[in-house]
């Protein structure tokens, strides 16, 4: 009888608790740094027995606060063709939704490969994105339910071979097919809560906790 396959390991995990809210709890050293512009900042908020991080609220001005948490660039955050799962606990109020808000992102859809979790549109539906490093085009799976109702929700994106799925609170809420050889590998940092500190950063406007990446 063959032994069971190894359990995929976390390559990055952040619970945002003291003493260092930006350290990588996986042990792989992907410590986050704060990148901010126009007065953007994160602040700690209570979540259960621990802490989470809150990002700036929705802003409709021309110049708004921007902030994101970013790791250093690291090849071991690239899944390539391997199975991939990533997610976060999200808290977003119904009146804080916008065209698009980034939760977790590595890479860019137009200039490199990418994996991403975002909250889409005024209805606040989570969606997961993959972009292949050789073939352009966004592969997306969107949740059938909202995550913007003022309550905490655990959202998970999961790629297993040609299957790409999204789960909300452990329930499958969307599935699509992708090329089995789709590969994600780029030289960009992992970014949480937005693309960066610049104008078009798809700022997340709620609170996040328990952000994680698992490869294999």
Describe the structure in your own words:
The protein has no helices and 15 strands. Helices cover 0% and strands 44% of the residues. The mean pLDDT is 94. Strands 1, 3, 4, 6, 11, 12, 13 and 15 form an 8-stranded antiparallel beta sheet that branches. Strands 2-5-14-7-8-9-10 form a 7-stranded antiparallel beta sheet, with no helix packed on it. The chain is globular. With 216 residues, the chain is an all-beta fold.
Order of helices and strands: EEEEEEEEEEEEEEE
Which structural class do you get from the secondary structure elements?
A: mainly beta
| Multimeric state | single chain
Low-confidence stretches: none
Note the main sheet. Answer: 8 strands, antiparallel
Distance between the termini: 22 Å
Mind telling me the C-alpha Rg? 16 Å
- Proportion of strand residues: 35-45%
Overall geometric form: globular
Mean of residue pLDDT values: 94
Number of strands: 15
The share of residues in helices is under 10%
Total helical elements: 0
Give a quick precis of the structure.
By secondary structure, this protein is mainly β.
């Amino acid at each position: 009888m063959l032994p069971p396959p190894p359990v995929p390991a976390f390559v990055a995990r952040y619970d945002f608790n003291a003493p260092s809210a930006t350290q990588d709890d996986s042990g792989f050293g992907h410590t986050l740094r704060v990148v901010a512009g126009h007065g953007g900042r994160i602040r700690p908020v209570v979540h259960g027995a621990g802490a989470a991080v809150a990002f700036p609220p929705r802003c409709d001005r021309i110049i708004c606060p921007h902030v994101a948490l970013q790791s250093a660039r690291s090849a071991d955050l690239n899944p390539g063709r391997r199975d991939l799962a990533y997610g976060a606990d999200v808290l977003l109020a119904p009146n804080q939704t916008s065209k698009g808000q980034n939760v977790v992102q590595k890479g860019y859809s137009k200039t490199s490969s990418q994996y991403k979790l975002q909250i889409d549109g005024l209805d606040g539906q989570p969606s997961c994105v993959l972009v292949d490093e050789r073939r352009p085009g966004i592969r997306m799976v969107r949740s059938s339910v909202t995550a913007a109702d003022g309550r905490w929700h655990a959202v998970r994106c999961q790629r297993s071979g040609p299957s790409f799925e999204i789960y909300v609170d452990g329930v499958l809420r969307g599935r699509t097919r992708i090329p089995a050889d789709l590969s994600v590998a780029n030289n960009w940092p992992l970014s949480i809560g937005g693309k960066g500190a610049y104008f078009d950063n798809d700022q997340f406007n709620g609170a996040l906790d328990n952000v994680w990446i698992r490869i294999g």
